[in-house]
């Protein structure tokens, strides 16, 4: 048997497994469904002395390694059914034979054999009664042993539950850490995407501002050119109007000069007419004077 040391090593004295001596092996407890087992953890170092299997073990493993086909399975099932039927037939035959032998060997009521059979029956009854009492006592012991086994099983189940609870807690903690890590990575990814969107919007705003500024500059240039063109048109219109006004003024002046000349000519003509009238009157007066 193995004993557990404080350092977790097994004290193995002259114990052989496959004819190999085990030394300094770690031992663990495995809580199964119905029992607690202690297992020796094998060493990671290679085995220097090879193990030797007996021929019976080799044949057993060779037979166990044989893969049964569907035909072999059907043949085995049929053979098992035939063997079961043969066993049932043999049992029935033995029962019938036993009944016949009991009927043949049944003794007469007043014979010596009947008395011996009665004594044997009483002795058999006593033995059966004693066996029943012993069985009751054994059942009590079995009950006590069963209760102890049940308590051990409960303890093993409790320990297994504690181990599973601790394992589940570690797994849940690991899962929470993994989820936290995933959430942190997702958060960093979202922050990076948000920074990229902000940078894109900022660059787009700058490009739009530059485009708008350039468009405003172009519009201002176009507006200045349009205003200059309009001013030039206004200047040309003003010049044309001034020329027209000058032409009209010149025409008016020429008209005034023509009218003045006409008036002067009329005045001169009137003056000549008046002078002619005066001369004519003077000539008429002189003529009248001559006539007288």
Counted by DSSP, the helix tally is 3
Write out the strand line-up for the largest beta sheet, numbering strands in chain order. 1-2
Radius of gyration: 72 Å
Tell me the number of strands: 6
Largest sheet: 2 strands, antiparallel
Give the overall shape, derived from the CA principal axes: rod-shaped
The residue ranges in which pLDDT falls below 50 over 5 or more consecutive positions are: 1-22
**Amount of beta strand:** 5-15%
How do the SSEs run, as a string of H and E?
Answer: EEEEEEHHH
Q: What's the pLDDT, averaged over the residues?
A: 75
Structural class, judged by helices and strands?
A: mainly alpha
What is the structure about, briefly put?
With 292 residues, this protein is mostly helical.
What does the model show?
The chain has 292 residues and is mainly α. Helices cover 77% and strands 7% of the residues. The chain is built from 3 helices and 6 strands, in the order ββββββααα. The strands form 3 sheets. A two-stranded antiparallel sheet has the order 1-2. Strands 3-4 form a two-stranded antiparallel ribbon. A hairpin with a 5-residue loop joins strand 1 and strand 2. The longest helix has 180 residues, at 112-291. It is rod-shaped. The chain starts with a strand and ends with a helix. The model is unreliable at 1-22 (pLDDT under 50).
Summarize the helices and strands and which ones pair or pack.
Elements: E1 3-4, E2 10-11, E3 16-17, E4 20-21, E5 26-31, E6 36-41, H1 55-64, H2 70-105, H3 112-291
Antiparallel strand pairs: 1-2, 3-4, 5-6
